[in-house]
Amino acid sequence: MTPVLEAVKLGKRYGRHQALMDCDLSIPQGRVIGLVGPNGAGKSTLLNMSCGLIQPTSGTIRVLGAEPAASPAHLAKVGFVAQDTPVYADLSVADHLRMGAKLNPRWDGPLAQRRIAQIGLDPKHKAGRLSGGQRAQLALTIAAAKRPELLIFDEPAAALDPLARAGFLDNLMEFVTDLGASAILSSHALPDVERVCDYLIVLADSRIQVAGDVSGLLADHHRLIGGRQAIGELPAGVEVIRVEHAPSESTAIVRADQRQLAGGPWSVETLDLEELVLAYMTRANQAAAQPAPTVMEAQR
User: Which of 81, 89, 233, 299 is 20 to 30 Å from 53 at the Cα level?
Assistant: First the structure.
C-alpha cells in the first residue's frame, strides 16, 4: 500500500537556518499520527511541505503517492487546519460552507450541515463572533467536508480550554473513522497525542529522532534502574537514549529487546509515552548544545 507520507533525506533551509535536515519517513495509511517536538523543531515546516505550501531545499517528499499539491485532484485529497484555525471573521458559518462547496469538487454538503448542527453553531453567526473552540470546530468541519484521504492539523487545539480541546479531539476521531482517512496531528499536549494517536514522530533539533507505531515503541523502550557501573556496561545492541545518575543509583532509558536485558544487575520497568518523548527530546537538546569541534579536534 502506498505510504500516506514518504520523505527521503528531506531538508529545508531558510537563509542560514536549517529548519529540517535529512528527514526519512515512510508512514503507512490508516494511521493517526502524532507529531511532537519543541518549538522551532521544524514541525510546521514539515506539515507545510506536506500540503505543498512550501518547497523543500533538499530531498523529496510524497503524500499519498504524489508530490504535495501536484494537481487540483491531489490537493482535494488533503484537508489542512493551520495553527490558528483560520476562518474569515466577516463571513458567517453558512458563508464558509458555501465557499467550501464552490472550492472543493468532493464537498460533502450533508456532512457539513450535520456536523454544524451537532456542535450547535448558528449558520447566521459570523465567524469573528465565535469562541475559539467554535472556530476550531468550524475549521475542522470544513477540512473534513472535503472528504480528504489525509487530514493535517498544526496545533489546532493549542489555544482551547480543556473542555473545548476534548470536544475537538472527539470530533476529529469521529471524522477520521467516518471518512476512513489518515490524520497527522502536531501537538505540544502529549496527553492529547496519547489519547488519539497510534503512530508517533518525535522531531527535535531539525531531525526525526524516532518514528513508529506507539505500541511498538513502548514495547521496545524500557527504564533500567541499577548501579552506575552496571548501567555503564549494558549488553551490545542496547541503545541508550538517556541516562541520569544519582548518588545511590542510575536510571537509563534504553531501546532494546527485553530479552537482552533479562538477568542483568538492574530492574526493568515500562515507560509511558511522555517519558519516551522527553528522553528523545533531551538527547537531541544535549547533542545540539555540544560545541562544534575545532579544526585541531576534527583532525585527530
Answer: 89
Number of helical (H) and strand (E) elements in the chain, helices listed first: 12, 13
What's the pLDDT score for residue 165? 85
Phi, psi for residue 185 in degrees, rounded to 5: -120, 110
**Identity of the amino acid at 294:** T
CB 252 within 8 A of CB 224: yes
HSE-CB of 156 using CA atoms within 13 angstroms: 36
The CA radius of gyration of the chain, in Å to the nearest whole number, is: 22
What is the per-residue DSSP string for 238-276?
Answer: PEEEEEEE-SS-EEEEEE--HHHHTTSSEEEE---HHHH
Measured distance CA(208)–CA(160) in Å, rounded = 28
Q: Which amino acid, 4?
A: V
For the chain, the structural domain boundaries read 3-204, 216-289
Q: Which of 114, 125, 119 has the alpha carbon at shortest distance from 87?
A: 125
Q: Domain 216-289 is of which CATH architecture?
A: 2-Layer Sandwich (3.30)
* Residue of 29, 78, 12, 36 whose CA lies nearest to 275: 36
CATH class of 3-204: alpha beta
Residue pair 166/133 in contact (Cβ under 8 Å)? The answer is no
